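R.M. (postdoc): so does anyone remember the format we settled on? I'll just put the structure tokens first.
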């Protein structure tokens, strides 16, 4: 795992965006898995601007959704589907046949999981994943658990995920389950980037980066990845030198 500490959120976002741009320049048909959420939002905006300014074409890329709230319409502004279309797919002019997202309204979510696993397998695997970290250490909706292994699956959401998730919705919304890629997908990706900013993430970053690798802190599994990068601002990195 490579650790990158940036001066601030803007610098963090610029570095993460540059990593994606570099890959797409080198491999125009790359398979990309991009998380939704507040932290990567600026990364995607910077990425889209660079793509426009430098004429970097993402249209041959395949896009894989990391996760989705179950029971939430893709038209809901709080959905991961809505976020990715607004911040990534529309700015980059990506056609729908290059986009593969979980259907949070599926009547058969287990089949939805198998379908996503097959799509990833058929494309030859994920070239780059950009993920965030939850307050409890989750990646996607892989909540703290007794074991790491899993591919796509439906999960019961932890209490902190339900609580923090409310910020994405305009009104109080029932959030009980999610559908997500598994941590095996993360480990098997050719490159993984975790981005985190702000002092509120400092303690969980310390646990993920410095303490033992455990499924109780799912993000700690990045240390088992052959090509993982953790990109932080100074606030998120502020507890890394503290002994506990």
């Amino acid at each position: 795992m490579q650790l990158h500490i940036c001066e601030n959120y803007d610098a963090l976002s610029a570095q993460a965006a540059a990593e994606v741009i570099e890959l797409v320049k080198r491999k125009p048909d790359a398979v990309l898995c991009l998380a939704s959420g507040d932290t990567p939002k600026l990364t995607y905006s910077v990425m889209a601007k660079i793509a426009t300014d430098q004429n970097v074409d993402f249209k041959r890329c395949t896009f894989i959704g990391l996760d989705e709230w179950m029971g939430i319409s893709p038209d809901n502004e709080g959905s991961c589907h809505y976020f990715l279309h607004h911040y990534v797919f529309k700015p980059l002019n990506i056609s729908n046949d290059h986009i593969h997202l979980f259907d949070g309204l599926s009547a058969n979510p287990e089949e939805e999981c198998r379908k996503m696993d097959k799509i990833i397998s058929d494309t030859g695997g994920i070239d780059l994943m950009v993920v965030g970290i939850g307050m409890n250490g989750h990646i996607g909706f892989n909540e703290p658990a007794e074991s790491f292994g899993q591919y796509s699956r439906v999960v019961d959401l932890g209490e902190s995920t339900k609580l923090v998730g409310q910020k994405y919705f305009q009104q109080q919304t029932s959030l009980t389950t999610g559908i997500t890629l598994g941590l095996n997908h993360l480990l098997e990706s050719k490159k993984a980037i975790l981005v985190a900013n702000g002092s509120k993430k400092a303690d969980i970053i310390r646990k993920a980066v410095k303490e033992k690798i455990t499924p109780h802190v799912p993000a700690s599994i990045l240390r088992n990845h052959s090509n993982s990068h953790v990109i932080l601002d100074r606030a998120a990195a502020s507890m890394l030198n503290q002994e506990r």
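R.M.: ...and that's the designed sequence above, right after the tokens. Also worth knowing: The chain has one domain: 2-211. The domain at 2-211 is CATH 3.40.50.1360 (Rossmann fold).
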